[in-house]
Batch of 3 targets.
Target 1
Amino acid sequence: MENRPAEIAQAFGAPAEGSQGLLSLHQYELLFEMTTQLLSAQSLDEQVSLVLDTLTAGLGYRNAALALVDRQRGVLRVRGAAGFDDDEALAGLELPLDSNAPHVRVVHDGRPGWLTREDEAAADFLRQAGATSDLLALPLFGGNLQPEPRTAGEPGVMRAGDTGPLRAGDTGPLRGAGEERFWLPQSLSTGALYVGAGRDELDESRLTLLTRYADRIGAILFNTANVERLTAGVRKLQRERQWVESIMKSVADPIVLTNMDNEILLQNRRAEELFSDRRDASEGKRRALEMNDLLFSAYLSSAAVASEEVVGRDLILVDPIEGSDIHFEVISTPALNARGERIGLVSIFRDVTDLRRANEELARNFVKLQKAESEARRERDRLDLILEHVGQPIAVCDSSGKFILFNQRAELLFQERDEMPWQALRAVRNNSVKLTSFISGLASGAETGRQAEIELIDPETTHQLPMEITSAEVADAKGQVTAVVSVLHDLSEIRELERRRVEQQLFESEKLAAVGRLAASIAHEVNNPLEAIKNSLYLLSTGKSIEQNGRFLDVARKETERVSHIIRQMLGFARRSGEVEWVAVNQLIEETLILVEKKMKQARVDVARDFDARLPKVRARADQLRQVFLNLLLNAQQAMEKGGRITVRTSVYRQALQPTVSVQISDTGRGIGEADLARIFEPFFSTRAKGTGLGLWVTQDIVRHHGGRIEATSQEGMGTTFNVILPVDSPTLSETDAGKKH
């Protein structure tokens, strides 16, 4: 063992004993043992850690780092570092291989070199690595090609004080800088070793030792990296095979992989049941399996000579268990190797037995469907015939509001036609929007039916058509809404009858009011003399002759009281009755306008509305106020023989001490003269030849009875305005008759 250190030193290329700069034989022995440990290490990371520990702890260098080439990613990746400020951060550093920086160029050139702060690119790397001194960069080589040994008199790798990389001859047969790049086969450089030391600290023997050391560990690390790469590849192939087998087992359809000789190489469980499962097989099952093998072999032979890349054929096999036929659709795809050569077929069997049965059932159902369609067509024809003979418009929409069926009356209101005038087209579209909006409200609610009134437009005359619409949803057997049926009823005739009834009631009311007022006037005239007679009789009864005329005076008093009683009854006849309630004036006027709407159109009178939405309700008798507004509207219409415009405006009256509302009805008629304006509220006075002269008289009496007043302003040729001013809570009405305010 005495000569062992010398042998180790000679193995690492040390100078002969006694020469200048001879290293300690202990260091050579340390490197030799480290090399032995490298060979026994289990992984590349362990080897890198061992190399760095030997350089820093064993040989005493300040720091060291090792980087290996990653050819797939094109980077020089630092695999480990020791002795730097942040070893972990440096260990993950990746350096682009296309860089010309000195710390990367050592890999391209295959020659060692110094990384100093005088070089700007090297200085950046030193700062990034946190190195406190210069770094010696040594290339690592792999493979069987090693650098040529140097002759005895040749200088070392790099002398202390040198400022550049070695000459091309110093590194053996490797090509010079710039001749080849790292990714070409001629280059064997697999990485770089960076050692932290000052140039004055390294003599020629130390540089030689580090160079030889780098040569040896380069080959070892290269082999280890190849082993790990091959091991990873084998594991990947094993995992992929397991994945393929798992996928095949998880697929319910049979899958078979065959070679070029039509031999089965791989199959899933379902395929085994059809071709290979002969365990404890009966005679019938074995025959079924043999038959399937024969049929599949014939299919493979035909698929092998087919010109298509993907072959799809129908194949009938035998069920080995039940013995029945199974219809398969077989799709075969060529299996290729890495060179693109065909090495077999992958066949997937899809069971289409149920599909064939479904096709047969579908054909039978198609015949039934044709019969049902014919019956439905006959039912549809009967339904169309019924709808066409219904006198009211009927429209059928789907759940989205799209029209799907009309009768003739509804088609005139909702169906657009070619060459339709613009006004008629606009009316039809307006009607369709209103109906669709109404049906949408039905869909958004919980009820299945809805009834309301809507205003449509007659496309032929462009007149308003008041309609009562009733819509109902039609549900299928599952409760899903399939259609909405809408039946419309024209209310024009009903409105006309109602208008005539109201006019008749108004006329009768005016007659009764006239009779009552007349009776009241007569009673007032008769009551005064009767009161005088009564007083005279009273005076006579107090005279001296009372005993003599007492019987006659008593009779006269009784008759006088009877006449007074009759007259009081006549006065009571003139008084009006009706329930007192809280009335929305805007709504009451709107209802009154509906009654006279047709009459206004016939007289070519437009009605403009200017209602105050914040108008409070008033306590009143609704029927009497309706009569007031109706009288004023009819008077305004009659004042415009050639048509015109009526404006109805409601507002809060600000000039009263208590809450009060104002209703103004203005016309553009001929107006009233100043002399006649002062007498318009007198009974039996009228500016029209056929007028009774009682309308405004009754109107004023009703307004006064409600604690309000009516004012009139007019200018001849410019029109007339009547202003009805009503208190919100009239003190003249009985509290017991008042309804509750809402």
Target 2
Amino acid sequence: MAAFSQRMPALAKALAWSPTPFRRVRPSDRDWPSAASWEKLKLQVGGRLEPVQFPLAACQSSFESAGCQAVVKNIRNPYYVGDQPGLTETSGWVDAWVSKASAYVVAARTADDIAAAVNFARENRLRLVVKGGGHSYQGTSNSADSLLIWTRHMDEITLHSDFVPQGCNVAPRPAVTLGSGVIWVHAYDAVMTKAGKYVQGGGCTTVGVAGLVQSGGFGSFSKHYGSVAASLLEAEVVTADGKIRIANACTNSDLFWALKGGGGGSFAAVTKITLRVHELPATLGGADFEVKANSDAAYHRLVRQFVGFYSEKLFNDRWGEQAHFSGDNTLGIMMVCHGLTSEETKNTWKPFLDWVQQSPDYSFVAPPIIGAIPAQGWWDPAWRQEHHQGVFKSDDRPGASEGNVWWNGDGGQVSWTIFAYESQWLPASLLRQDSQEKLADALFAGSRIWDIELHFNKGLAGAPAEAIAASRETATNPAVLDAFALAIIGSGSGPSYPGVQGHEPDVERARRDPAAVGRAMGELRKVAPVPGAYVSESNFFEKDWQHSFWGANYQRLQKVKAKYDPEGLFFVHHGVGSEEWSEDGFTRLR
């Protein structure tokens, strides 16, 4: 009894101590900044602070109203969506997230604007969101009740003939500096169309440059040049302490490494990036066609033939982009090539096309389009129009730039809602002669369940040694270096608008599809069992996401996070350090 009595004070103290977890504030909380505080921030950022409007709110009462129809008229235009701080390219992901407007936005134009917003968010315990292009499938540039740093207007582009990163004693090299609000089509216009050089960026024209670099990033020709992150020479950023810092191989080198594929919005707010510039090849080209088989057995043979053909003729740094394997027994080819003439491009495909044409079991859905064009015309809408190549859609708003275009095939991503999405890197060992049969079997079996896409440019096996070495120095999962392709299987619908009656996504289907998508990917994981997914194109509910996205690099990334953002100001879903927070990023769990 005496011993128990002696322990009572310590026990009482322990029971009385109930630490309150750190929680960010919302507009309904009494600690939300006062109107005077917001006005002070507005003065600091030159008046560029505003409450955020959600354009689709006009549709929630009546879809037929004039206000709603004005929004709907433009909602499939990615440039309109990108110009709205209250919208995201994707409408949401059923049971994961939906597009919601922040409480306030700083429409930043300078690094000082961003620093002021970062300091204000930290000092007032606000949820902070950073958005450039707004393309995140995971909803990482989106949160209700937050302060949004919107970099859309930081769109400066500067070409350098002899760039040297600050503090580095290295030979000068050609480069381009891009503000964090630049989108890739405008970067290509400046570097390729006008300057006749090449910069490795993304294939989708309206993706933001800064976000793609931070996610690792791949473009149509990454099989030759490496990942987008591998081209980063220097970044200017604002860290969680509000300081404007330079990050390169010689200054803040640990942060520089983390920015190269460690995930967008996790380590700092990027103000500008500088990427290496390459010589432009004479030509870029491709092959576009679909082959239809008349039976399952014939389709199985077609898949097997393509696997062997790819291994022999296409598994190199010349060829990138996609092959689609569909449940209706169609093989779709949408591939591009680098540095080949039209004749060389056609000769590459001749053995495969001859094989198809020799059998009555196969037919072309449309005549194959195979050839090459001058590389300087690839992203030039004027050249494409002059040569009757209708590959782009245009921003038709009054006063819009003629350079505001997007590929026809990318339109489906605008205002779509995701139901399921998974990715998996496939190792190049599957292309060995003794493994091609099991790869073909897996592709065929998976396609019986759901359509499968192989993105060859998102696996770097087959790239030149220089591109592999540069990509190895990024934070991306090293599995990409040994992968010949990234397999993607997904489901969604659009346009759809959660919360807009009569135009909402099909929730029943959305909850049914993930199981089938998972089974289809399961067929591929039988032959590629080691988890490895691309962070920007992956499952919102990814298990063991730390290792799927970053592999052995994750522990090193955690150390960088702890050094530059110890309090977790920068939070994104499944970002480095996010396991310490609630799903919405408002409450710290440990």
Target 3
Amino acid sequence: MVMAVAIIRESSVETIRTVCAHDCPDMCSLQVAVEGGRIVRIVGDPDQPFTAGFACAKVTRDGELVHSPDRLTTPLRRTGAKGTGAFAPIGWDDALDEIAARWRAIIAESGPLAILGYAYSAHQGQMNRGLVNGLFHALGASRLQAGTVCDTCCETAWDLTVGPVGGADPESVTEADLIVAWGADLVATNVHLWAKVEAARARGVPLIVIDPRRSRTAARADWHLPIRIGTDAALALGVMHVLVRDGLCDRRYIAEQTVGFDRLERAVLPRFPPDRVAAITGLEVGDVERLAALYGAARRSFIRLGEGMTRLAHGGQALRAVALLPGVTGAYGRRGGGALLLTAAACALNYNAVRKPSGPATTRLVNHLRLGEALLTLDDPPLRALFVASNNPAVTCPDAGKVRRGLLRDDLFTVVHDPFLSTTARYADIVLPAATYLETEDFYRAYGTYYMQYGPRAIAPQGEARSNLEVAQALAARLGLTDPVFAMPPERLVAELFRGATGAAAEVDVARLREAGPLSYAPRGDGAQQFRTPSGKLEFYSETLAAQGGPPMPDWQPDPEELRQAARWPLRLLTAPGYFQAHTAYAGVDFLRRREGAPCCVLHPDDAAARGLADGQRVRLFNDLGSVGLVLRVADEVQPGVVLVPGQRPDDEAVSGTVNLLCGDRYTDMGEGATYQSTWLEVAAWDA
């Protein structure tokens, strides 16, 4: 699809077509109306098929984010103790010169490994995120294993099962005959897919939601299965058991397109009859039977996989088990069927041109979720400098208390580039005012739909704000880096991304990219899922996992460490995105904070009554790692034994602290990811 990207002028109002850069799978194409140097309206682009003319309630308020009175307008230098937020303004040249001088001195004394710098997901642009990381790659600094706080577990498990390829086209969901949202709250995190699901439901296609929480998506579904946290693999294996028992497997597809099903059928599935699965998951036996019957009867079943089910000890096993279901019925072979986790692997750009312009091929790695551990314990050399852009790790990393203790080190030189004085920025030595996505030029590739698009800036940066790209290039110049990308304007940088691109990206006319509008990078073909595993097939049995000493087939068993925690603490944590505060990037919009309400936790009425707690009361959540203060909401949207905390909210909005102070930094079984949902705790009155 090609659509001209134009600036439309109506009297004094200009409308700019650009792209939403928030960390969201939809990556909407937007129309931004600007009048008198201010954003006055943001709407979805009606000419982009997935955006389909509407933007979510959060993004329509991004004009308030841009023009917030709380925006940083000038660089700042710390004048008081770390963490207190005491700063004084300085000029950009002074700030950049000081950063470069400190880094040069550290490199001379300790080598480049003493520096760690990165940009993360608050800006999804390929250049504004990629070039910051390219700067530190060229320096030979320690490198962040980014994404372990989010998606490395699910992505690794998918790759081991399906291969590094995109999943089902979300636009094909309208051709499905059964839709399953498995651990995915579409209303909160994938609202444009939700719109297409609603279109399918209008013609009679049922929606099943499998989720421990009665989310808004679950409440609107045709059927909600409130599964126990961490039992997704058992349910998927139970469904397979029934499919085999009742002759509902597509044996021809299994024989031609998969490997290892015979082993799974013999060694694993007999251990997951419906009665055992019901006992594990908390569902009724009849529910397990009914789910399997519905799934087995469908020819084009579409599963939307949520990432949250993998943020626990055996999350990789869960993802593998669920992602294999379409292979049992052959749904992967039909458009409208299959499973969708991510799409980005299908967009074969030359990312390394920006992310890795030079520098050593390998160096010391720092796992994102163990940033606090690295700051406190790494040696030979220790980390002496930290640069953070488009991220708020003092809130979003597990064991956030450890991150904060690391940031308090007097001998750590910290620079934060952010539009606001975030929790992390309060610990910095220098804070740089960052431009928002609406004030930057960039190129975007969606990770939950098959579109890519150039996004021009809608408005000039407010105050003295500068983009990640500008800061990376300015620091590169001061540090003597001569890679051409550090001197290229955005239009030349984006051309580098397409140099050597393959697949649909290779067909793009880069010279017209700025005017082209949204372009599809969907794989060509009949809609059948392609596999890029070592066998070239869907892998029920993974030789790769076997060689690594891991379980080669999906399974479910209780986790010993979780059992130990459950014996000490009676409640299990469930985290989920808030509807108006999905993550801290939206904290700068007062309207959205008020719509979301005060940071809260949700307890089942039985659990609240057992503790003498009432709705609206201030409560303390605590375990061995620490305690936080939130407002209690009593509701049956969660099951007994579960405490739900929506959103990742900064400290200054809560009674005290942020929920990740309670989450440990243990790894998942695959991908070394975060295990937020393997957290156990207690809740009591705040003043108890």
